[in-house]
Design goal:
By secondary structure, the chain is mainly alpha-helical. The chain is about 75% helix and about 0% strand. The mean pLDDT is about 95.
């Protein structure tokens, strides 16, 4: 029997309640993609990694207050904002 993969929306709702496993799943799901986006602009491994980690740290710290409808769009916009 295969496990159902939870949607970003479900993971976000669980994360808002303090579920660290949901946060980790979102991190693993989007880290590489977000890193590639940041690296394509700044071309520095360390800076790109720091920016991505800052985005996810802020996401965790502000999880209870955030109203995110599209997680992928939210973190992509966050990356653009952090780069500039």
């Amino acid at each position: 029997m295969s496990e159902k993969i939870p949607s970003d929306e479900i993971l976000l709702n669980l994360m808002k309640e303090g579920d660290l496993n949901s946060f980790n799943t979102l991190f693993e799901r989007y880290w590489k993609r977000l890193y590639a986006t940041v690296f394509s602009v700044c071309s520095d491994n360390e800076t790109s990694s720091e920016i991505v980690h800052d985005i996810f740290l802020n996401l965790w710290l502000r999880r209870e207050k955030l109203q995110i409808e599209n997680f992928k769009g939210y973190i992509t916009a966050s990356a653009r904002y952090q780069i500039y």
